[in-house]
Each structure stands twice: as C-alpha cells, then as structure tokens.
Records
---
Amino acid sequence: MSAVPTISLKDFDARKEEITQQLMDASINVGFFTLYDHGIPSEDIQAAFDLSREFFALPDEVKAKTPLDGKNAGWERGTQVRPSTGTADQKESIQLQFARMEGLWPSDEDIAGFRTRAEKFMHQVQTLSIKVMECFAVGLGLPIDTFTEGTVDPGAGDSQSVLRLLHYHSTEGKSFGPNFWRAGAHADFDVLTMLFQRDGEGGLEVCPGRKVVGDFGMGQTWLPVEARQDRIVCNIGDQLMRWSDDRLKSTYHRVRLPEGTESRGPRYSIAFFNQARTNTTIQGPQKKYPEITGGQFIADALARNRMQSAEIARQAAQQPEDKIAREIHFVPQHLQISA
Ligand SMILES: O=C(O)CCC(=O)C(=O)O
Ligand SMILES: [Fe+2]
C-alpha cells in the first residue's frame, strides 16, 4: 500500500456504482481517500478559510468568550492531550454544531455574520457527506438511508455532527521536545470525516492497518497526505468501523510539526465530523458488537480519553520535577516501538 487513493465524483449519478466500488476499496484497505470534482465551489471553501483566519486572529480574551464546553463545542487553545502522546496538540480550535450551541456562537460584534457563514458551509459539507454515506450504505448491503437517517437531524435537535476550525500556530523560532505534535496520533470517533487543507500546509500522515475498532492498532508505516485545497480528505471514523462490523477501517492519523527546510508558518485546516445522532442505534449487519446509541458512543469515547489522559498524568507525576509540566514525554506501553 503506497498511497491514499484519490477518487473523482464527476458525473456522480451516472457513475454511482463505480464510485461506490472505489469508496469501498479505499475504506476497506486504507480508511482514507481524497475526493476531487466533489461539487463544493472553490470560493466557498476559500470563504470558510477566510472565516477561520478572521476568528483565530481575534485576541484570546475574545475567543475565550465562547469556551469549549466539554461536549465538543466552543474554543480551546493547547488543551487537547492525546492519549497516544501525553502532550497537548500545538493548536487552537473552535468546534461548532447544529444543536446545543446556546452561548457558544461568536457574536456578530466580534465577527460579522459568523454563525450564518459557518452554518452555510456546514450544510454544504453535510450534503456532500450524505452522497458518500449513501454509497457506503449500499456498498455494505444496508438500506441506502442508514447513515443519512443515522446522522442527519430531521428537526429533533439531536444532531451531534461538528465543524472544527483548526489553527496550528507558526513554529518560527520555537523548538519542541521529541513527542510534540500539531495533532498527536488518534482515530476519529465519528462516522465519516471530511477535512479541508490549504495548498502546501502539509504534515498530515496516516497509518493503515487497524483491524478491530477497540484497538490502538498503530503500525510504523505512515503515509503522507498531500495538502491541496481542491481535494477533500475523507476518513472513516470509529462509529462507521463499528457499524460495518470492522469492514471499513477507522485509521490512525496525526499531523507532525514542520521539519528540515519546510515552512514554519501556521497551518489552517477545517474538519467536518459526521456523527451518529444522540438516539441513533449503531449496530452492524453481522451484529459483531452490541447495540450502542450515538449519544452513549460519544460519552464513552470522551470518558475513555479522559481516563487515559489521567493515567498519563499519574505516570508523569512519578517523573522527576523537571520532566513534568509542559514536557511530558510518557509514551504508553502499547505504543512503544521496540528497537
Ligand atoms: O488538521 C488535520 O489535518 C487533521 C485534524 C484531525 O485529524 C482531527 O481534528 O481529528
Ligand atoms: Fe482526526
């Protein structure tokens, strides 16, 4: 396996079967693929990045008016510790949802039309996601609307999908310890992620080979994903891996810091996470795993991350004083690479 497959959605209706086959092959073998000819106008993608830049350029005190609420909505900076690394991602982000956003939308005084502009893009990406999720349903032999009904809120206010604007700070003049990342290795929790990158702002790497959804399953071969604004990077998340009885793979991925002669400038990306609705029941056709609701799935995943992070902190606390604080270099046993 040498690269992340790239798939054209040109003439979608006429080519649906062929596209479904390509999406299935990519998701069974790699868990990642990129889309082109996807139909989202380039000026709308640019507008989403413009919105992101405007927001992150605000002073921290202003961004902190809509803080992360523990339920995947709001702004945070430098707080996301990945269980795989034990260090905080070198980034800031704001997560936006269709529901449960009371008090969490940046105000029009701070950014004119923020909510309208963000929601327009969220709907565009959700609409494209539906097309792709319908292909997966058909490819898996399930009713065509399985994941659409399962993720898209018909008006009940129970959507859990998230748009996340990400800003990885410039690393100009900074140096980092050996276990620092723009985003530490992780698998996504959701059904399907669509990620937008900007030309030349690279560093995303993926590690195919996970067999079972509960596994860490990280190998040692990491494939780079080219950063191009005209391609959408898509990946299967843990919910779809479980919903497909592990046929479609939720693959570990990470974003590394700039190296060698690479630009030290900032990196902006935008991710849309299609999540199962709160009351949707997730279970694959073979019933490999017990039923679980979308709400419980997210609650469990967040609790598991908190537990693993607490364990990392506990182990770090046993290290000499000068090793703690910012520079925690604990690597969990299961992720240590033996020489
Ligand atoms: O910024 C990226 O390229 C990847 C971000 C990511 O994997 C995530 O937020 O889950
Ligand atoms: Fe991710």
---
Amino acid sequence: MQPVLNIEDVKCVEVALTREGVSVSELMHRAGYAAAQETIALGDVENVVVLVGLGNNGGDGWVAAEALFARGVNVKVVTPLEPDQISGDLARQVAQSAVKAGVSPLVGPSRDELEDLLSTADAVLDCMLGTGFHGEVRAPFDIWIECVNASGARAISVDVPSGLSAQTGRAAQACVVADMTVTMLSLKPGLLADDGRDVCGSIVVAPLAEQTEHLVVEADPVAWRTDLSDYLDVIPAPTQAVDKFTRGSVLVVGGSRRFPGAAIMAARAAARMGAGYVTLATPASVAAIAQAHLLEIPVVPLPEDADGVLSADGKDVVLKLARGVSAVLVGSGMRISGGTVALVSALIEQDVPLVVDADGLNCLARLTDGALPDFPEVTRRNAPLVLTPHRRELGRLVGQAKTPPDSLVDALEDARKIVWSDGGSNLAIVAKGSATGCVGVDQALLPKPGPCALATAGSGDVLAGMMVSALAQGSGQGGDLTLMAAYVCEVHGYAGSLAAERLGSRAVMATDVIDVIGLAADAVGEHVMFPEGVEEA
Ligand SMILES: NC(=O)C1=CN([C@@H]2O[C@H](COP(=O)(O)OP(=O)(O)OC[C@H]3O[C@@H](n4cnc5c(N)ncnc54)[C@H](O)[C@@H]3O)[C@@H](O)[C@H]2O)[C@@H](O)CC1
Ligand SMILES: Nc1ncnc2c1ncn2[C@@H]1O[C@H](COP(=O)(O)OP(=O)(O)O)[C@@H](O)[C@H]1O
Ligand SMILES: [K+]
C-alpha cells in the first residue's frame, strides 16, 4: 500500500525532515535531481524546456535544469523574471546557480516565442505551480499552460501538474495535462481523484530521503492506495469441497414498480461474483418480470403499497429469509417510504452481514433525520455492515444534502464522521465516485479506480451485488472488512475496463459489466496470487 498525505501533512513531513538534518534546500536539490532523472529515463531527450514559477516549485525546476545541463542536455529555462529578481531566497539562489553553471534563461517570452521554443522540445518540465497554487491561474502561466498542452512535447510535471489542486483534485481552467508527474515525498489525494485522474499521467513518487517513509506514516496518511498484492487475505481460498449454499447464499431485497431493474441487476451481479445461491425479494407486481430475467434466481413476491413500493407488511417474510442466508443486500431501486424505512431498520437490527445501497441509504438518512453520525447505535451491530453511498447519498447521511462532498478528501471526511462515531471494525463505508474511498475505523483505502465507462446507470447496483456476494463468501468477515470492500471495487473497476475493451468506452451498460465480473475476478485473483507472472491489471 502507498500512503496518501494531505498537503498540510506533507508540509509537516518537510519540517520533520529538517529536524532530522535534511534542510529545505537539500530537499529542493533532491527534488530537482529526481525530476531530471525521470526526464532522462524517458529516453530521447536532447532538448528540454523547463517552465519555472516563482515559488519553490520553480526552484525545483532550476535545479532540474542545472542537472540536465550537466548531463549534456540542451536545456532552456522559461521564467517570468530574471533570477536576481526572484523574491524567495531559496528559489533565487538555485536560479542564480543554474545560470552561473551555464543554463540559459528565456525571460518573459511572447506567446509566439514560447510556441517556437516548445516546437523544438523533446520534453517539457512543468515547474510553474506546485502545492502553493490556489484559485485560478494568473498570467503568464495561464498562457504558458495553453502552449504546453498544445505542443507535441512530452510534459513532465514536477510535484503536481500546474493548475491542479493537489488536495482537492480540482483543475483550474488552465491546467497542464502531463504525461508523467514526479511528486515529492508522498502521493497527494488530488493527484488520484476527479480532474487529477485526467491530468497527472503516470505518477512517480520521489521520497527524497530515507527517513521519509517512516515520517510519512507518522504524519497519519489520509488514505492508502492499495496494490494488488494487498488483497491476498480477502480472496476466497479455492476449494472443490463446496455446495451451492456453502459457496455463499445471498438475499437481495429491493426493486419497485418504478425501478425493477436495479434489484434484478444486483441479484445477477451477486451470482456472477460467485455466490452459490441468490434469492431476490421484490414487490409482488414486479416479481414476474424479475423472474423472467433471472432464470437461476428464485424471486419471492412481497407485499407492496399502491405505488408498487415494498410495504412494512413484508417485514416478517424478509427477516425469515434473511435468517437463512449468509448475507443480505437492501436498497437497490427500492424507493423511500414508511414501508421501506421499516424494512431497512429491521434488517439492520438483524444479526446478518448486510450491504445497504441506494434508497436503502436514503431510508437510513430519513431514519436518522440526516444525521447518522449522531445515532451510532443504528450502525453498531455484531455482523458486518457495508454502506455504499455515492457522494449525494453520503451528503444526505451526514446532514449535507444540499452541499454533498465534492472532492475525494471531503467524501473521506464525511465517511469518517460515520465510522468514527460507530467506532467499530464491523462497519465499512464505500464512498463512491470517479475515485472511490473505502473507509473503515482504522484506515481509508483507495483501490485502483475503473474507467469512466462505469459512470452509467445501474453500475452502482452491480457493485452492491458484488459486495454482498463477497460478504456472503466470507471475505472480510473476522478479517478486514475495508480491504474486502476495496477488493470488490477493484474487481468492479477491472470489469468496467474489460467491458469497455469489448464494447467500446462509450457503449458500456451496467449489464455488460455484470457479464464480465467472473473474468475480472479471475484476472485480479491471478495478479494477486502471481504478481510477477502476469501484466498488471
Ligand atoms: N514540501 C516539500 O517538502 C518540498 C517542496 N518542494 C516544492 O515546493 C513546492 C511548494 O512551494 P511553494 O510553497 O513555494 O509554492 P509553489 O511554488 O507551488 O507556488 C507558489 C508560487 O505560486 C504563485 N501562485 C500561487 N497561486 C497562483 C495563481 N493562481 N496564479 C499564479 N501564480 C500563483 C505564488 O505567488 C508563488 O509565487 C512543492 O510543490 C514542491 O515542488 C520541493 O522543493 C522539495 C520538498
Ligand atoms: N468517472 C468514473 N470513473 C470510474 N468509476 C466511476 C466513475 N463514475 C462512477 N464510477 C463508479 O460507478 C459506480 C456508480 O455508482 P452509482 O452512482 O451508485 O450508480 P447507479 O446509482 O446508477 O447504480 C460507482 O462504483 C462509481 O465508483
Ligand atoms: K508543477
């Protein structure tokens, strides 16, 4: 796993390193060398343009330029100001040193001059704005960024692509789209989520000092990016000595006359993820449609109200069915009513591993008056509970319906409000988004996200079905629930990639993802077991 640090904590690591004898100047030199090294490693770099800003990110650029020059690279530094005019002491010193060593600066070029220069470059080193950037990009960097993106040269961003917030993952209107980002000390959340996924290219972490590893861990990472090898403990051990029930039995409670498909897809996804026996309990008026779509899955008709929404009259049947299975999913396509709130509440009180998704979460929000963290007794139970909200659902759970989290870090923080008030290891929250965070009481995990093809109606229902299936098969129980959740997200993401490969990135529908869950799970499993033997998933 790789630690991900909030920006303010990266700064704390910087301070801790200086206390351990590694000065900021030394760090800047190592950062510059690391950037130069990675640039050379790209191969075929004879002409490099280094665009520098006026802060320490620019300082890294001047050091990199001097290092590249010393390696015989034809390097030109583009700067808004003469080195002597740079106000920051450190940045000015490294700029003066680079010029003294023979690096030639181009000060305040016109757009045409810059475009001409970039047209001759094999690579551009982007050292304009780093973690000190905020707001919209001001001149001249907005224009420089446009020129970089329009040039054909490979762009290597130092620490963070200029224009991206390394904390929130939001890009300004002008933002470098890099081929590679060499980031200092540790991963930052904004590099991994939202716009960050579009603009960072491949990410290389430069630790800069041998003490960094332990200092980063001590700085309390906001999350950990998982590696495939981390999932070894949550993949069900292969055995032939099973029957359809011991392979995991699942009950899906959901669907409504308005949305019958969500529960059908969830049930199907649960079977495709490996549960041996799946049952769907759904309103009576949609049971026949559901059964027609689910030949292998028994469908139990439940009492419903005039709108075709599950009614509280079905509670006893649902609880009886729940007692007979290894795990339950409630919520898919269920709608919010007095009846569905009562069902969700009854299932949470039942001692069975449970996944709550979609309207099940909205029922939970209603049950707790939009303040789930204030009612920890609701989620505190003996059996595992996994909540799978997207950002709007998460907002409703924590009293922020009108202002749901709009960054990964905000979503992690909201999820933490819930798991920390609960305080136990039997609760995991899967905060879904373009990058998904799986949050438990001890840590938050960031599985590798799938492609944007997953942003399609029903893809969350598929994930919920997969989640309950993994739970039913015993993954995570008595072990690490958060890691199990991350593993399921990883398989979901990979299934999205497989479906996109087969059908085209724009064509994927949720049912296509269901069809390849098994292949995705096998492929991820193989990578986990034999990391050296196969290409990365
Ligand atoms: N944290 C660390 O331990 C290390 C940090 N280093 C570098 O230092 C960087 C942070 O340095 P700084 O704090 O000086 O910040 P930056 O260099 O990222 O940015 C500060 C400069 O950008 C300007 N600026 C801010 N917002 C702007 C906007 N919207 N439009 C135009 N200009 C804007 C400021 O006026 C200032 O000149 C990191 O990103 C990294 O590259 C490295 O030198 C080594 C180690
Ligand atoms: N841009 C994206 N890139 C990768 N995955 C995405 C993206 N957008 C959504 N997803 C994933 O797709 C799923 C969507 O779930 P959800 O919003 O609940 O959809 P629905 O309610 O339609 O089923 C989540 O697993 C989410 O992480
Ligand atoms: K940068």
---
Amino acid sequence: MNAIQVENVSKVYRIYDRPSDRLKEAIRPGHKIYHRPFYALNDISFSIESGETVGIIGVNGSGKSTILKIITGVLKQTEGNVFVNGKVSALLELGAGFDEEYTGIENIYMNGSILGYTREEMDAKKEEILKFADIGDFVYQPVKTYSSGMLVRLAFALAINVEPEILIIDEALAVGDAFFQAKCFHKLEEIKQSGTTILFVSHDIVSVKKMCSRVVWLDKGVLREVGEANAVCERYMSAQIERTNAENEKLLSQIKMHNETSGIEANSMIKRFPRLDIQKAEAITGTGKVEILSFYIKDKNGKESKLLKVEEEYSFGIVARFHESLEHVIFGFELENLRGVRVFGINNFMEKKYIGQVSNNKVYEALFSLKLPRMCKGEYLITLAVAAGTQENHVVHSRIHNCQTIFVENEGFNIALIELDADTRILEYDNKDIVIR
Ligand SMILES: Nc1ncnc2c1ncn2[C@@H]1O[C@H](COP(=O)(O)OP(=O)(O)OP(=O)(O)O)[C@@H](O)[C@H]1O
C-alpha cells in the first residue's frame, strides 16, 4: 500500500522583475502579463510504500522543502495530485507549527489537538516528550525565548512521540548538537523498525545512505532519479564532483602553486599489476584524463590479499596512466563500511608527499604502506581516486567508487567502528582521601 503518492506535481511561482509589476498585472486582469513563471517543482511523480524510509536529496533550491510542504498540506501545488494515507507528523521549518507567544507545554497540547489527541491522551505523552526534549524549565517559557537548539529539541520530541504513521523531517536535525543528533538517529531507527513510513530531507548523504532504503533526487525542480539509496546517492555525489571539478578547474588555473620537487622514483623494470575490475564499481567519475589501471593490497610477505587482519602491515598500490601532463597530482583511496560510513581515507597530499608533475602517456604507481587500524570485523568497500590540486581545492580526474570489497578480520570485541589502543589503569582510594570539586 502506498503511504504517499505524488502524481505529476508542479509548483509554479510568479516572478516579477519589479514589485510594481505585480500591482500592474493585478489591476489589468486579462491584459498584459508582467510575470515570468518559475517552476519550483516541475511534473514530479513518485510513490512511497507504507513502512519505507525514503530520503529526498538535491542541492540548495532544488525543491526539497517545497515537495515536503505540499505533501504535508502547508503549500498547495499548482498542478498534479498528492495522496497521503496515514496520520502525518512533520518537522518542517524550524519553529513552524509552534505559536511563539505560548509556552512549550501549551504548544505541546495545541499540536496534540491538531493531530486529533484529547487533553488526557496528551497528558500521557507529555512526560515522554519532555524527557526527550530535555530543555528543563524552559518548557514553561514562551517559545519565542527559545534558542534554535531548544526549538528543534521540542519539535523533534513532539513529532516522534505522537505515534505518527508517516513521519516527515526536513533537515531539522542539523540544528541540534551532536549528542542530540545521535539521540534522534537512535530514535529514528526505532521508529523505522516499528513500521512507520519516514520521509527524510537531508544534505548529509552519509545519514541518508544509512537511514533510507530509497532516495528521491531532485534537481532544479525536476526529478532526476528515484531508486535504491546507495546507487542514487553515489550518482548524486558524482554529479556534485563534476560540478565542483568545473569550478575548481577555473580556480586552480588562477592560483599559482609553486612546483614541489618531484618525489617520483623512476623505474625501468617490467612490472605486472592485477587489472582493476571496474564492472562492479558503483560509479566512475572524473575528467577522464587519468585512467586507473590497477589497485592491489599486499601483506608484509608481498602476497596479494583481500582478507586483512587488523594491526598487520599492508601496502596498498594504485596504478594509473596519464593521458595528459598534470601538476600536483593526488593519489588516494578510502574505505567505507557497508552502511556508507567512511572509516578512513589516505592520499599523498595528506601524507605531505607532493608530486610536482606527471607526464602524459606515462604510468605511475602510488604505494601506501600502513598498519591496518583496529577496526570492526566485516566487509568494506574501497573507493579509488586520482585528482590534481590541493586537499581543499582539486579537480577529480578519476574516481572509481566502491570498486572492490575487502574483508577485515578482528579477533577483538568488535563492538564499534574502531577500537582504541589505550593504556588503561584502575586506581583505588579511601573515601576520605578524595575531594570531588
Ligand atoms: N514564495 C516563493 N516565491 C518564489 N520562489 C520561491 C518561493 N519559495 C521558494 N521558491 C523557490 O523555489 C525553489 C525551491 O525551493 P526549496 O526551498 O523547495 O528548495 P530546497 O531544495 O528545499 O533548498 P534548500 O536545500 O536550500 O533548503 C528555490 O529556487 C526557491 O528560491
């Protein structure tokens, strides 16, 4: 069953060059048109099944908030239809849904009554809401005195504790502090498991990948893609890379970087490298001026391996052919877990091994030797990249996303993403010997 169905929805705004044009058009109905139509959304269709967690992604101004407002009924579409099946609780703009003259408590009851709950029913929910919001006595103060952090705390606590069938969240979590964000993500995970449909707008692609099974990608009001979360997020990130590449290419040509002495070692021996299988890669992007030919991992005996043990030494090699002479080249790779969380990344720029210039039609091998950190046991995905510029400002010439998996063995407790090397001591004191300041 569909919880939300969006059919050919468009939202058109009238844009006037001068404020007076609006008036001129109003007083001469049927005559001259003074406005230009602007499509904030253009013929958007998608549906969300009951129980799904779906993300909406897109750059600023792509129409994400507009579609959420239309789904929640805050805004009326110009064309098309929206069907919503279930009780909706929404967290839209910060403070929306609150009357700022009233206290937090009063707002809790007002919102509850809008959602059809009686005062008694809200009495029962109040404690849970206040506990989650954790804003102390501020709940007795008018909402207009709240900081943005307090507002989002109350709004989130309210939105999740009214047992919605459909929960809609617009980027709101970004406002809270890190502890609150973590608490919210935990709670969202719980809500998701209970079968609530969740629609989630965020610029944080890692969270979207982690939370959502499917993703809707909006681009300048147009639906670019709807599909499996990881795949759509990858293509979205690739598109962002291409966009920033174009911008950085311009910027780098203006910045004059001093040529470092080249750290490249010449090698005339014939070497064999395993061919990189790019068939399984999730996305390949870049200018195409560099072709990544090989990636390999060798253990300390020089044996190739995809089954790695924590705290052992490995060398990671990237081999690439250059189709153009380039300056300030950066070779690097990243490791992500299967939930899309990056565990580590390394490149020669970070390691302060600067490369002055590489020549057209030559092949270069970048070698990274490292001790594998104490990370959680399991499967990981590798992303390879060759870029040029600096860490902050670079053009990606080739990026092969999630092209290979490795398996990490860890005989430890495996309770978190990484384990620490800590010097742990326990000291004992007599009660009388301590002062707690
Ligand atoms: N009242 C309005 N009149 C004219 N244009 C508007 C109006 N409201 C929104 N827009 C435009 O509609 C487009 C979509 O806006 P929307 O807020 O939905 O984007 P968004 O994807 O949520 O952006 P962000 O990530 O920055 O929040 C933007 O170009 C915005 O300027």
